[in-house]
Amino acid sequence: MNMDRRSLLKLSFAGATVGVFGGLGPARAAGTAVTISEALRLGMYASLYVAADKGLFAKHGLEAEVSTAGGIALPTPILLSGRAQFGVTSPGMSVNATREGGKIKNIAKIVGGVSMWAMARPDSTIRTIEDLKGKTIATLKFPSSTIQVPNYAMKAVGKFDPKEAGVTFLELPAGAQAAAVKDGRADVATAFEWDISIGVEQFGLKPVLSFADIIGPVAFTTAMATEEYIAKNPAAVQGFCNALAEAQKLMHQDNAVFTQVSEKYFPKVAPSVIANATKNFFGSRTAIPTAPTISAEEWDRAMQLELAGGSVKEALSYDRMVENSFALKAAKTFGTAG
C-alpha cells in the first residue's frame, strides 16, 4: 500500500468520533497475552469495551490489551508486523492487505450494520432514501464514509444516481455538519454516534434515516487475524470470539450495559448524549450484532459498499477472506443468533 493510498484510507471514517481516545480500563488478568489493535475509539466498537470492562477476555483465557491505532488502514500492518494478534477495522483493509501479499482472515463481526444516521431539522419531511433527491447533504470531507454510505444507499437501494437526482454533498470539517443543517446550508447531515446525539441535544435536530436499516446486515467492521496466528493459536482465537459473543449477548439482554460501559470509556461525552445514542444503536436492527458470526451475504454486501466508496479496487471472496468457525462455535455456546 503506497503512502498516498494509506493516507487517504487513514482519513476515511475519521469523523465517526468526537476525538475521545485513550487506553482501555481494567488491569490485565492472567492468561494468553494478546494485543487488539482497533482502528479508532468508536462507540460502535462496544463489543470490545464490554468484553474488556466485564472481564470477559480474562474469563475466556486472554490477557487482552486494546490499543487504538489511529486510522482504519493501520491495524492490518500492525497485525502483519506481529505487534498485535487481533485487528478491528473495516474488512476492506484486510482485502487490501491480502492483495498486497498479506495473509489475513476475518474471524468475527464487531459492527453488523452501517451505524450511520441522517439528521435533519424537526420540520423535515425526509423519511426515505428517495426523499434525498434534490437535497444538500452535509458530510465530512472526502474520502469519508459519510459520503460513501449515502452514495451507496441511493444507488443500490434507492436505484437512482445522486448526481442525476440533484443531490449535493457539502463537505465540511469534523463537527460542522449539525450547524450546517441548523442554519439551512444543508437539508440533512450524515454522521455516526456520538455526533448524531450531539446534534439532537445541542442543535435541536432529529435522526430521520438509519442507514443500518436501509442497507441491511453487513460486516461493516470485523475482527481479523493472520492465518499463521489462527493456525498456531486456535484456543486464543476461540477465547476472543467467545468474549465477543458473551459481550454482545449481555448488551442485547440489557442495553444499560452499553450505556454504563460507554460512560466509562468515553468520559468526555455527556451522559445524556450516550443515553440517547443507546436508543439509536439498539433501535437499529443490525448496528450492534447479536452474534459475532459473519455470513456470506454480510461479507458480499460489505464488499459492494467498499467498492462503491473506493476503499477497495477489487473484492475478494468470502471463502478466501473469512474464517467463520470460531465465531459460529461461540454463537452456539452462548445461544445467540449465528
Task: Write a structural description.
The protein is α/β, with parallel strands linked by helices. Helices cover 43% and strands 16% of the residues. It has a five-stranded mixed sheet with strand order 2-1-3-10-4, sandwiched between helices. Strands 7-6-8-5-9 form a five-stranded mixed sheet. Helix 6 links the parallel strand 6 (136-140) and strand 7. Mean pLDDT is 90; it is low at 1-29.
Quick take:
By secondary structure, the chain is of the alpha/beta class.
Helix content: 40-55%
The major beta sheet can be summarized as: 5 strands, mixed
The total of helices stands at 16
Q: Would you count the extended β strands for me?
A: 10
- How far apart lie the N and C ends? 34 Å
| Low-confidence runs of at least 5 consecutive residues | 1-29
Instruction: Tell me the series of helices and strands, N- to C-terminal.
Output: HEHHEHEHEEEHEHEHEHEHHHHHHH
Note the overall shape: globular
Mean pLDDT: 90
Q: Decide which structural class fits the backbone.
A: alpha/beta
* Fraction of residues in β-strands: 15-25%
CA radius of gyration is: 19 Å
Strand line-up of the largest beta sheet: 2-1-3-10-4
